[in-house]
Structure formats: C-alpha cells, structure tokens
Fold this protein.
Amino acid sequence: MSNLINRLGLRSRSLLGCTRTSWSTPKCSTLSSSFQHKTFQAYRAASTTSSTALDKKPTFITTPIFYVNAEPHVGHLFTLVLSDVYKRWETLNGRPARLLTGTDEHGMKVQQAAAKVGIPAEIFCDDLAAVFKKLANEVGVDYDRFIRTTDQDHKDAVQFFWKRLQDEGYIYQSKHTGWYSVADETFYTEQQIHEVVNPATGLKEMVSKESGRIVEYTSEMNYHFAMSKLQPKLMDFYKANPDFITPYFRYKEVIDEVAQGLEDLSISRPVSRLTWGIPVPEDNSQTVYVWVDALINYLTASGYPFHPGKERALGWPADLHVIGKDIIRFHGIYWPALLLALDLPLPKQLLAHGHWTMNRKKMSKSDGNVVNPFFAIKRFGLDTIRFYMAMDGGVDYDADYSNEMIATKYKTYLQNQLGNLVGRVSFKGYDIRRSIENGRTEAYHDSPAEKALLELLEKTPELVTREFDNRSISGALKKIFELISVTHQYLTIIQPWSLVKKDTEADRESVDHCIWLCAETTRMAGILLQPFMPDKALEILDHLKVAEDRRTFEWAVFGKDREYANGIKHRVKMFPPIMTEDH
Ligand code: MSP
C-alpha cells in the first residue's frame, strides 16, 4: 500500500481504526493529528463551497472491465461502442466527459486460464490486457483511462475500501458453504442451481439455473459482507430512483429480487484456492473476491481514496455504467450496497444491454460461434461496424449478429442513403456556395415534400437529443437517417439535376433553394453522426469544408452556418462496394 500511503501522506498504521464522518473523509483514530487537521479543514472548505462548484463534474461513463481469460469478441466490442457513442455525444454537446474502460484480471477464471497454458498469471494478463487495449484503440474508443485491476493504485484502493468496510462493522468471518461457478465468478444458493445431464457426456452435473454454467460445492472459512443489513436502504434508494436501471423491466427484476430479502455476501476466498488476486489487508491467508475487486475499479479511476475537496473532480458518482444483462446483479445490488455501507454517492444509472447471439445462440467460445472483432473491423471497416452495432445492437433484447445483415445495412443506409446524398449535393453542375447564399427563399415552402423536409431540418437535433436522453442510440441514429431519407424523397421530386440544365432564372432559383436544403441536411447529418461514425462524419464535414469550430451540436441548427462549402470538390465516393457473402 506504499503508493497510497505516499499519496495521502499517511503512515501505514494510520489506515487503521477509521470511522466515517462524511462520504469522502474517514475519521481515523490513528491518523496523524496534522493529517486529520488538514483533512478536516479541507473537507470543511469543500463542504462550504457553493453547491454549483460542487455540482460541476465531468460526465463519467464506464464500460465493464473485461475478463482476460480469453480473447475479445464482438459482444465486448458492442459494450465499447455503446459507451463510446455516449461519451462522444457529451463532448459534441460541449460537456466535459470521461470514459473509463479496462481489464478485470484477478480471480479463479483467469488463474485457471493462465495455469491451463502454463504461463505465469502476470504475463498471461499482460498479453491479454494488451489485446483488449488494442481493440479499444482500433475501435477509436475515446477513453480517458484504461484501468487494469493489477494497477498498483487499484490494489491500494481495494485494500483501503476493505478497511473502511471493516471499520464500519460490515465485515465478519464465518464458514461459507455453497456452490461456486468459476465461469460466472459467483456463489449460488441451493435454490439457484439444479442437476442436468450433459448431452455430450451423458454425465449428471450441477449447474446454475440462471447461466447454465457448472458449479462446484465448496465449504470454506471466508470473510462476509453484511449486505442483508442494507436491504431497507437499498429498497429506499431504488424507489427514489426509478431510472437507476434502464431498461425499466430490468429495474423491476432487481427491485423484485431485493424485495425478497438479501443474503450476506462472501467476499474472500482462501489463498489455498485462489492466489491470483488482492490479499485481504492484514490476512494473507485470504484473497479479495474478484467482483469486489472489480467493482471498485470505478472508484479507483475516480481518484479514490478521495482527497478532500476533490471527490467529484474525476467524475464520481458515475453517470452511466454500461453493462451487459448478465452482470446486473453485481452492479444493481452488490455495488450500491457496498457504496451505501460507506455512505459514498451511488452511480446515477446502469444501462443494461442484451447480448449478441449467432444464429440465435449466445456467442460462446466452446460453441465456436464467437466473432472476432478485429476480423469484423478489417472486413467491413470500423465505421460500418460501429454503425451496425449502434443501429442493430439490442438493448432491451438480444440481437443476432449476421454478416449478411451488415452488408445489407451498409448498402441501404450507408451507400444508398448517406453516401448517395453526399454524392447528389456534390454534383458538378451545382455551385453550393451560391446556393447557400441565394437559396434562402420561402417561395417553395408549400409543397408537401418540402414541408416534410423543413419540419425534420428544424426538429431532428431535438429528436436525436430526446433519443439520447432515453438511452436509445439506435433511436437517435434512426432519426438522423429519417432526415436523410426525407431529403432524398424531396430531391427525387425536385430533380435539380434536370432543372440545372434548363438554366432559366426561375430554374436556377429553385436549384439553389433545393441544394441549400440538401446541403443543410448533409452538414447537420455530418455533425450529428460524429459520435457514431467519427471517421466518416469527419470525411463529410471536411468534404463540405465546414469550419472545425462549427462542428459541435450547437451548430446542428438549420440555417445557422452560412460559411461552409468554400472550394468544395465535386463527386465523392464515400462508401465503395464491400464484400458480401456471395463474393
Ligand atoms: N469482468 C466482468 C465485468 C466486471 S465490471 C466491474 C465481466 N467481464 S466479461 O469480459 O465477461 O464481460 C464484459 C462485458 O461484455 C459484460 O458487460 C458482458 O455482458 C458483455 N458481453 C459478454 N458477452 C456478450 C455478448 N455476447 N453480447 C453482448 N455483450 C456481451 O463480466
């Protein structure tokens, strides 16, 4: 813990004997008196600062941290893309934001995976963490920290958190008997398991009813977290925060589960079983349970243990934890319970998404139906994959991954809609600059096609915002494409490419008007698509010569920018044909 001790300016024994006085500042009986004095002065100063100053914090978004027992697949890619789109949306709106991702490296699962290939766990983790980091980089994830649970500041934070739980009287030792699933890294009760016959071997085995994964009986001494004590507080919290988990039906599932009562949680494993993890402070015979270790990563990256006055500086409490549906219990129950025990602020929202399946079967390595995200990106291009995941990825339900569908969506939306629009407004017969200057007439507003287009030009930014607020990035993307589609319908009716040939004054006027409207759609779509398809959006905005300081959300307003399109080139092919299943 030496780094932590240095950071806080503590002597090692000063971590003992703390009692809580606020969510940030433990009152430690054994802290040096000068540290205590400084701490409380700073805390008082912070707590008397105006509430607006305290409220200012970056929006903090997190991905789950990925187990390094195996290589990433497109399920992991989806979580990364979702989180990244939310982070970029914040930035687009001019709100400071932080995004955290990383790897979950301790625990039985990783210990066994390393042992299986005969590689020391440290090296095994270094190798796989590098692969996940490479994926995050390749996907263009705009993360602010890539945390590894083997990072020293994280180990320190976990041990500090543990001590605080102990000081608050939430940890006790007792014998634990139960069924452990290494694959799920969790204990199950008798009611949560059942016997099945393995179709491959004909042998009977005990598996979790929920995940179907094998469990093994264990009986051991370990530490427990008195989670049951927190049941009433948790229920109060859920009731006061109906948006805590989205979609709502998953919130209902959690609240129903907690309403039935909570058991205490086993939070350590004997070293005889699990060595690969963070040692329990002052008891080297026990290793911290991997989920407690993992969840605390969100706090570590927020600067925990907090310096007084800096509690919110790195974003805590998290605004959005993006997670898959299989890890809701850990984030929706254990995590708030742990935080409540220490009176720490709770995250604002969990977005629990569905899973990607392949031929309607959950992707799993053993079934051999896992899609390698690096190959998918190489084959279709990064922005195409980001687009597909954002458009088709299931939040409420599972989604079936299909190469054919990627190719179809590419053709329909990217080539025929978006690419074609950029091509159509860039036709060499037009002068976009002149259209922007001269096309602002209301003379044509009565035609139904134009009315529909004008309405969407005015409303789309607000509609997209509403979808983001409702945590539907697929809805947001669809709104942008509705604007594009209506623009094509309008273009097909006006046919500026024919009018331009006639070259009468009236025709020139209507061409200018039409091209101005279409250029506005293209410019606004370019701005709004940035969170989804950063490279292609950049290509569009560069092509339209939109000034770099006019690419934020506040510029996605119909008619606001009059300066773009200077020296624009004609004819662009943004979305070349891609390989489909038939080739
Ligand atoms: N290490 C834990 C998370 C700890 S967070 C404090 C873990 N890791 S994981 O690697 O197994 O999964 C990481 C994320 O990927 C989870 O949100 C999980 O739901 C998600 N997915 C795993 N398979 C998936 C699909 N097939 N489809 C979509 N997401 C999937 O859980």
Summary: Residues 64-67, 75-76, 78-79, 104, 294-295, 297, 323-324, 326-327, 355-356, 362-363 surround 5'-O-[(L-methionyl)-sulphamoyl]adenosine (CB under 6 Å). The longest helix spans residues 505-528. The CA atoms of residues 338 and 403 lie 42 Å apart. Residues 402-555 form a domain with the Isoleucyl-tRNA Synthetase; Domain 1 fold (CATH 1.10.730.10).
